[in-house]
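Notebook B, p. 112. Complex prediction, attempt 2.
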Amino acid sequence: MIDAGTLRRFLKHPSGMFGTALLVLVVLVALFAGIYAPQGPWPIIGRPLQWPGQIPAALLGTDHLGRDLLVDVVYGTRASLFVGVAVAVFSIVLGTVIGAMAGYYGRWVDDALMRFTDAVQTVPSFLAAMVIVGVIGQSLVTVICAIAIVSWPMVARLVRADFLRLKSQDFILACRIMGMGDMQIIFTQILPNCLSPIIVAASVIVASAIIVEAGLSFLGLGDPNVISWGSIIGGGRAALRTAWHITLIPAVAVVITVLSLNLIGDALNDVLNPHLKHR
Amino acid sequence: MDTATEPLLEISNLRIELDERSQLVEDVSFRLQRGETLAIVGESGCGKSLTSLAIVGLLPEALVDGVSGTILFEQTDLLAASEKTLRNVRGKQIAMVFQDALSALNPLMTVEQQIEEGLMAHGAIAKDKARERVLELLKMVRIPDPVARLSSYPHELSGGMRQRILIAMAMACEPKLILADEPTTALDTTVQAQILDVIKSIQKRANLGLILVTHDLGVARYMARRMVVMYAGSVVEAGLVDDILNAPKHPYTAGLMQARPHGSFRRDGHLLRDIQGLVPAPRNRPRGCQFSPRCDRATERCRAEMPPLVGPKTEHQIRCFHPITE
Amino acid sequence: MPALLKLNDVSVSYQTPRGELKAVQHVDLAIEAGETLGLVGESGCGKSTLARCVVGLNHPTSGEVLVDNLPLGTKLDERRKSASKVQMVFQNALSSLNPRLVIEKIIEQPLVVHKIGNRSERKARVLQLIDQVGLGRHHLDKYPHELSGGQRQRVSIARALTLRPKLLVCDEAVSALDVSVQAQVLNLLVTLQRETRIAILFISHDLSVVRFVSDRIAVMYLGRIVEIGPAESLWNDTLHPYTSVLLASNPDRTPDEIETTPRIDGDPPSPINPPSGCAFRTRCPYARQVCTDVIPVLSSDELPHAVACHFASEIRSGKAVNRSEFSREVV
């Protein structure tokens, strides 16, 4: 249940608040990218592979094409966050619908949907994402879909577990006796009681989506028209021994963002399921 | 020391508090002889379960620091004892039987394995003799077809069977005192009667002390010679079961007895005499007598001052300024 | 005037991996308008399964359930129709209320589902119900976990009454409550019934409670009704050996009463593969060969009320043989 008490507990959670502060920082960077560097990350401002300090205009040096590395990383934040959130939204919607149907209807519906979920999960997720992007084409939308396709099974299982538990609770029986239809029960009665695992899963999915996107872009499978942290790292791969700052700096950005999301996710878990902590 | 007259268990001024504003158990004292049954009776939130958990040191962590008073078990103060001493006492000399048999039993172990584990943990027996002893215990609790039951798992047994297993495990190390907390509340009526009979016969045979925590006055009457009535953390009436149930002196005890369904409304049209209001939460306990907000005999004095528990310890004690005397 | 609720030869069976579970077997039952029928039995007797048939949650494997002479169905549109006739109050008040809704929303939910009334009309009805069940207006915007067990049960009752049903099924509605709270809720139920003339099917394992609220009492054992009759007749003139044991096991009886009635041992047989003939014969001190061969039917010939036992008259007149190995071990 998300109420004032839960919010208060979250605000008092030290690592959760630290994670939130980091994430807020990251979001602000993404938001103010346009104000900080209105010219965008594309303009070439100097020689490639320059270290920080070698060119006065480029605070963190230049990438493999001579673009301002700092501006690259700042704009990359937008791409990563966008992909992360979009993937989370898709996986949650898809996973929730499948998990809810499986959990509520049970029997053959459950069997069929769970076998399907199992099948999707057995495919190695990163490889599957690569194949999908490779086959359909490299664009941001494809990347988002590809990652979402492999992320929803986790949500489905969590939602299914809660539905199995809740559907035989007396208040649901009371709703059926009252004459409430199945869809109404699923969406207005059971689902609002399942929000905790979904919220925690969301933070995990955003984090892992960012990493997968970075990986895809690193391998050159991302959207070529989008600057993302992975694409920057990928660009610096050839010069790894001499200009490793091109790899390090975006990697640090990934780590900070993922760390903040994980801290928030853990804190949410502690706050929403307090009885688990004090076992 | 003459053990025949020394009490087996003597609790004095037990107090359990969560913090200064929440006293969960206040000033509880009673004693128990070997071979005697004492019932602790009360409704939810009165502190009866906490009292029994305190005896064996199984209070939840948050409450451990808030415990004061003395609990003397054969002259050893269990509250001041080390964990080592407690472990020697718990399970071996004081055994516990809880309400929910299913969660008290290990789902992955058979009946034989579980009882044996208890036997060998306290070094009571050699492995080859263990099986015999297990069968002996199963017969003691009147389990039909005990040899077949040895290899059963808890989920294969009914509630009544599981409770008998719990009792067998409790008896494994020949304890001197059994603490039974609502042992039959979750069982069907006929099974409850059987289990109570089993407990009664075991107690008689082994001359055990028995503390029975229950909310059911009928069970207290059937099983115990003496009882203690608790309300909102304190003892409000104590004495012989027959005395109390035939002529309750405390308005709460009288209220509990009258609230029990009897007769037929459809025939007589008489409603049950219920006790208005609710038990106060520990944080909201009133000054003065805890029961005063719900008592129709309450006076200003009752609301201002907490009545003391008066009366000789071995006879009828009462915590009330205006006990019922007719 | 046809009975409000009629069960005609209702049976409910399930297939389980271990065999066919016969939860309810050939039950005939009728409840008149304004009547309270108490249903007593222990775990496995089928009373909860029967309750679910009465409210349309379970479809009987055979037989029919009639409310106001119309068959009760389990499909959605049928349940919507029956919602205004039959409602249920559950044992566990906490799990029968949606934890995320405030009390006002919980009580008005049936009105919303059936699109009855506008906002202010619904609010008026909720206020009326709150008064009827003895709660205060300040409870309306609380959540279930903020109320006590007794208060939650009152909310549950209020919600059940929202659509003005004719029959209320109370499934162990007071069993989880403390004695003093139980008394409050029982008083509430009988008072409400007197005011609204609603019929009640009151299910419980506690005979004292059932006797207090009921006009008639039915006793179930392993899926069948073994005794049924007016409450006082059943209480004072018990005919079936199982009912006698139930009464004797009630801790409220005085020790003398308990001493003289036979006890039974062990557990009831499983509803999967019940014993042939009379299901109680495996634990009955009066059982003879005919009890194994022939299932006794409910009949009240020359008896104060109906009972399903081959030897009811003999037992009643003291002529039946009571095998001593079944009598209580004197402790």
